[in-house]
Specification:
This protein is mainly alpha-helical and 150 residues long. It folds into two domains: 14-75, no CATH class; 82-143, no CATH class. 75% of the residues lie in helices and 0% in strands. It contains eleven helices and no strands. It has helices spanning 2-11, 14-25, 27-34, 39-51, 57-74, 82-93, 95-106, 110-115, 122-129, 134-142, 146-149.
């Protein structure tokens, strides 16, 4: 049995294993994970997901087991999430001061909005910012992955 599991594990790429885990968890949980991925990661894993069919139960078991094994190895306290800090600082300092502290840690609220630019076509963005000041253009480009900004 271990030989079969080892064959199934080595035959799959990490992206294929991720696709199997995402397909196994259902639409809403998978959507929550997909929201956290960058453009290239999302495209890679969803392309693999769209091509998968006839996956054997043993292959699914191996992929899920590997996911949980790696999760157990890496889980621990790695720092507070922004939402944890937001709630804690709100209780300790009040909303305005908490927001000020969080903005100094994480940057302005513009970062998540600017991250959406990775989904627009480079030509569309170039047309929209062509008449902006060069410094403003640089700000827009700074939020893009390097291959898109180029």
């Amino acid at each position: 049995m271990d030989a079969i599991n080892n064959q199934a594990e080595t035959a799959l790429t990490p992206v294929e294993q991720a696709a199997i885990v995402l397909l196994s968890m259902g639409e809403e949980p998978a959507a929550n994970v997909l929201r956290c991925l960058g453009r290239e990661e999302l495209l890679a894993v969803t392309q693999v997901m769209s091509r998968m069919s006839g996956i054997k139960v043993d292959t699914v078991k191996v992929s899920i087991q590997k996911f949980f094994d790696e999760y157990r190895e890496q889980s621990g306290v790695h720092g507070a999430s922004r939402s944890f800090l937001q709630r804690s600082l709100d209780l300790a300092l009040g909303g305005d001061i908490a927001n000020s502290v969080l903005n100094s840690i994480y940057g302005d609220e513009i970062r998540p909005k600017m991250a959406r630019l990775q989904w627009v076509s480079p030509q569309w963005l170039a047309d929209r910012i062509a008449h902006e000041h060069v410094r403003m253009q640089a700000v827009f480009l700074a939020f893009l992955p390097p291959h898109l900004a180029g």
